[in-house]
Design a protein that fits this description.
- The structure is a single chain.
- It is built from 16 helices and 14 strands.
- By secondary structure, it is an alpha/beta fold.
- The protein has helices at residues 32-41, 69-75, 86-98, 110-121, 135-143, 171-181, 205-218, 229-239, 248-257, 283-296, 307-320, 323-342, 360-363, 373-385, 394-397, 425-440; strands at 56-57, 103-107, 127-130, 147-150, 188-192, 221-225, 261-265, 276-280, 355-359, 387-388, 390-392, 413-417, 448-452, 463-466.
- α5 (135-143) links the parallel β3 (127-130) and β4.
- The strands form five sheets. It has a five-stranded mixed sheet, with helices on both faces. Strands 9-12-11 form a three-stranded antiparallel sheet.
- α4 packs across α10 (283-296) and α14 (373-385) crosses α16 (425-440).
- Bound molecules: pyridoxal-5'-phosphate (PLP).
- The site of pyridoxal-5'-phosphate (PLP) has 15 residues, from α4 and α5.
- Residues 62, 109-111, 134, 136-137, 192, 196, 225, 227, 265, 267-268, 276 line the site of pyridoxal-5'-phosphate (PLP).
């Protein structure tokens, strides 16, 4: 909404929300003593807190969006037929229209699609290069017998590098891998945009195009993790000269055209509480996926979702690609991040699309990585103000499949993830104030000891004690 004729000398326009609030959800307020007790009972793992005891829930932006009245109205139009639900066809049509892929298989969420894809494409001994790993994606690749190889640019591992596209793939690293193991050992290149584990950092469309040309010359497919591709499209619009005047929907479509298919968690960009899909352009692969889907998810026209859920996602896709929406969504994240930067708090820069990442190595330098500084920081933020964040460091990184040793990731982060259309600017202010308070008292904090470690994706259920 800009009107040149009436523009004031103030050049900056706020990211203000392109919606108003129709329904509210009251929150419980807790005391510090109650929160100390709750976090100890949760083994200092924010995943094990009860949501009731949380004031501002920044654990994840997954499935936590507020749906619009248009989406809720669509829920009443659920066609709960076992086969051939009209909501499936609406969903299929919108994915084809906005993402541009040919064949769509719905799944209950993103990892359902990752499971099917990995089973179809990966054989034991294969290598899967990608721009930094994602937890569930890499696990499915490894369970299928593959080895994930990180080919992201070095800047991605440096929390302080200001590179505008820290999600880019290093073409030399990729070429070296292909030359070393052979193209026939690489079923596909796993490209994510934005890159969650690097801090919500985008990949440029120029880089993806170059990767696509390289991949084509070797006959290797590219599969996109499209979970936050709309947010990625926003950064392309903001940072790549040729795309400045293009609509988000146009950029998204071109972006996806440099890939051969995607896995998708609808719980992020697509503004729903549950849902996902696998999309493929190759008919033969689609046939295989359609065969497997009935084992793991459901019939190929519902894939683990109710008809109403598919309708909500079909409508969520339409809303997610609107320029006003994505500008306000990323704008709110930038608002929180800028406040923390102004106050000298160490965070990953540039500010990403869906979250602010506190740099626990600089925040708590006295705690060695074996004593889980990011895990401790997340627990402390909860005690401080009832804010729930998530560890994205050594606990999330897990252990090497080969040696059983801990991975020691460069990045030891706490993620403050902003749900879409849920919290207000006052919530962001309070969050920044709480982080600042913990930062002020940071010298008093010590590390943690892990007292229970689950076998898979340990960050979800591990338990800790104060040292
Ligand atoms: C959330 C997420 C997934 C997994 O999706 P689920 O819906 O949680 O199963 C995969 N990749 C990325 C980048 C994600 O953020």
């Amino acid at each position: 909404m800009t009107d040149a004729k009436h523009s004031s000398p103030r050049r900056h326009r706020s990211w203000a929300e392109p919606y108003k609030i129709k329904v509210v959800e009251p929150l419980k307020m807790t005391t510090r003593a109650e929160r100390e007790q709750a976090i100890a009972a949760a083994g200092y793992n924010t995943f094990l807190l009860r949501s009731e005891d949380v004031y501002i829930d920044l654990l994840t932006d997954s499935g936590t969006a507020a749906m619009s009245d248009y989406q809720w109205a669509g829920m009443m139009l659920g066609d709960e037929a076992y086969a051939g639900s009209k909501n499936f066809y609406n969903l299929e049509e919108n994915i084809q229209k906005y993402y541009g892929y040919r064949y769509i298989v719905p799944t209950h969420q993103g990892r359902g699609a990752e499971n099917i894809l990995s089973q179809i494409l990966i054989k034991p001994g294969d290598y899967v290069p990608g721009n930094m790993y994602f937890t569930t994606t890499r696990l499915h690749q490894e369970l299928a017998g593959g080895t994930f190889v990180d080919v992201i640019i070095d800047e991605a591992h440096d929390a302080e590098s200001l590179h505008p596209f820290k999600g880019n793939i290093d073409l030399q690293k990729l070429t070296d891998l292909i030359e070393r193991v052979g193209a026939e050992r690489i079923p596909y290149i796993s490209v994510a945009g934005t890159v969650n584990m690097a801090g919500g950092q985008p990949i440029s469309i120029a880089n993806l195009r170059a990767v696509y040309q390289l991949a084509q010359s070797y006959g290797i497919r590219i599969i996109l993790d499209a979970t936050r591709a709309v947010e990625n499209a926003y950064f392309i619009q903001q940072r790549e000269e040729d795309y400045r005047n293009q609509a988000i929907a146009t950029i998204l479509h071109e972006f996806c055209s440099y890939t051969d298919g995607c896995t998708m968690s609808g719980k992020k960009d697509a503004l729903v509480n549950i849902g996902g899909w696998l999309a493929l352009n190759d008919y033969n692969l689609y046939e295989e996926a359609r065969n497997l889907i009935v084992i793991y998810e459901g019939l190929h026209t519902y894939g683990g979702m109710a008809g109403r859920d598919m309708e909500a996602m079909a409508r969520g896709i339409e809303e997610s690609v609107k320029d006003d929406h994505i500008r306000a969504r990323v704008g709110q994240v930038e608002y929180l991040g800028q406040k923390l930067l102004d106050w000298g708090i160490p965070i990953v820069v540039p500010i990403g699309g869906h979250a602010i990442y506190l740099d626990a190595k600089r925040f708590l330098p006295q705690i060695p990585q074996d004593e889980f500084p990011a895990q401790r920081l997340a627990a402390e933020l909860y005690v401080e103000a009832g804010i729930r964040a998530m560890e994205r460091g050594i606990v999330s990184a897990g252990r090497s499949k080969q040696t059983g040793d801990n991975y020691y990731p460069e990045l030891e982060l706490v993620r403050l993830t902003i749900p879409r259309r849920v919290y207000t600017q006052a919530h962001m202010d309070l969050t920044a104030e709480a982080v600042e308070e913990v930062y002020y008292n940071r010298d008093r904090l010590c590390g943690l000891k892990m007292i229970y470690e689950p076998k898979y994706l340990r960050f979800f259920q591990a338990r800790f004690e104060l040292l």
